[in-house]
What does this fold into?
Amino acid sequence: MSRFKNEVMHLQAHVRTLRIGAGVLVMLALVMGLGWWSAPRDLTIHVPPDLRSGSTRLWWDVPPESVYAFTFYVWQQLQRWPTNGDDDYPRNLYALSNYFTPACQAFLQQDYEFRRNAGELRRRVRGIYEIPGRGYGDNPTLRVRTVSSREWVVTLDVTADEYYASEQVKRALVRYPLKVMRIDVDPKRNPFGLVIDCYDGAPQRIATPSDDKTKTTPLPEDTP
It folds into this structure.
């Protein structure tokens, strides 16, 4: 009789152990589920444009080449007026507003109003493109200067073309020194986590596109 009683007690102890184990597993599942739920749904990782060689990056690090690519893309889109500067410039300002700091947005809005009042936008078609031999790969240290882990100064050497109707009225080789900051406050509207804080210095006119040591001169008030 005692043998059967001991067997029953052994089985009860085993069931109790299984219940405790199941409870621990449920608690672990809840903790893991909570961690999964609180984890970010999207993670931005900056990959260098040149994939011919491998690269090891910290997930939060923004390499200089990504900063340059972002700055050139946004600035080129801002300066693109395909039909009429009176309409295209403010539309670009609104569409790209998430890629500029509030101070820069206000500065560009003043620039638009000044150009509009001076008659520099009506029926103007404009576009900028990188000067051959003046891109990031030709001189990375000149194109992107790291101020801190969250601030950079990007130098863009571009050609700016403007047309009035079908007639070209301006072609200027311009150097834009632009401040870029890392402000990742709205990943949905700005997946890059970077914003342009306008000029680090006055834009300058480049005398010739062939010599990287060419001197530059400040542009007049009607900066292209």
About this structure: The CA atoms of residues 78 and 92 lie 5 Å apart. Helices lie at 2-38, 64-78, 85-95, 102-117, 140-143. DSSP finds five helices and seven strands in the chain.
